[in-house]
Amino acid sequence: MEEEILIETPPTPGPFFRFADENAWLTAARAAGFTADFPVYDEEGNETGTEEKVVQYTHDYALDVVGSITVGGEWDEEGNEVVAPTTLDGFHVNYVGELPEGWEAFEVTPNSPYRVFA
Fold this sequence. Notes:
By secondary structure, the protein is mainly beta. It contains 1 helix and 10 strands, in the order E-H-E-E-E-E-E-E-E-E-E. It has one helix at residues 22-31; strands at residues 16-19, 35-41, 47-54, 61-67, 70-71, 74-75, 81-83, 86-87, 91-97, 107-108. A 4-stranded antiparallel β-sheet has the order 4-9-1-10. A two-stranded antiparallel ribbon has the order 2-3. Strand 6 and strand 7 form a beta hairpin. The protein is extended. The two termini are 36 Å apart. The mean pLDDT is 89.
């Protein structure tokens, strides 16, 4: 009897999303239900209010908020910038889970993704 060897192909990275800016991303995150208000405490442990934060991981989804992406640039041996890096357009987010409604409009397919889920 021959043993059957199953070879799994690695998952395709993505999807990747590019929003116009951070505010557009936060608007989409709120609409998708990816934000929540968390209590804020002072130095003595007293609750002073709440702060909205993006919930990046649950059992239903995972977000990798990349933000702005820069490429290139040059620095001298002391670490001083000689040539400024170029900032790519948009605010970038990677996502795993069921696609939120309306996010198709923000999906991009980079040739060389800057960052992917492992």
